[in-house]
Design goal:
It comes from Prosthecobacter vanneervenii. This protein has about 180 residues and is mainly alpha-helical. It has nine helices and two strands; from the N terminus they run ααααααααββα.
Length: about 180
């Protein structure tokens, strides 16, 4: 495991979901579990990928809407227009959620990840979203929102960081905290 994955693993083990967001996170996780088989079919195309990887990304990028591209939440009725633009490269719209999800995972190199431990997964999710927070030395809301490790600071648009903005969605770690419970 890389040094950053070790740091994230320790942070993940110690973080807690903020009580004011616990019910919301649980509801999101319950919705993810309802579609576990669908996520497992996508993840099953990549050696060792757990079902919860596409599920977490689906929550983060699409609010669990199966009519949107996993890449960025654009509608499946056309190729993506936001970054990454023009995806999927193959096929014709409208795309199925599954074919777009497979393309998104390959496009961002998640098909090459073999270590899906908590710390390594958080590094992969951060790379998927972007490392701008890491460069600022700020906990990424993409990872830590709704946990005790995040308070404020958010990119409100590509390249525009607002230190006072607060994320209004659960971060990957909060979702994983419940998803990885026995």
């Amino acid at each position: 495991m890389s040094g950053l994955a070790d740091v994230y693993a320790r942070q993940f083990e110690s973080c807690t979901i903020r009580s004011e967001h616990a019910a919301e996170v649980q509801g999101e996780v319950d919705r993810m579990r309802m579609h576990r088989q669908r996520y497992a079919e996508v993840a099953g195309q990549f050696p060792g990928m757990p079902w919860w990887v596409p599920a977490v990304l689906h929550s983060m990028e699409c609010g669990l809407d199966f009519h949107q591209h996993l890449h960025n939440g654009d509608p499946l009725s056309a190729r993506t227009v936001q970054v990454p633009k023009g995806r999927p490269l193959k096929g014709k719209p409208p795309f199925t959620w599954e074919e777009s999800a497979v393309d998104a995972l390959v496009c961002d190199g998640l098909d090459q990840v073999r270590d899906w431990s908590a710390g390594a997964a958080l590094v992969a999710f951060e790379n998927y979203n972007g490392t701008g927070y890491r460069r600022r030395g700020v906990p990424s809301p993409y990872l830590w929102s709704y946990t005790d490790l995040y308070r404020c600071g958010k990119y409100t648009a590509d390249g525009h960081y607002d230190p006072q903005a607060v994320s209004r969605q659960s971060g990957c770690a909060a979702l994983m905290r419940l998803l990885l419970e026995p």
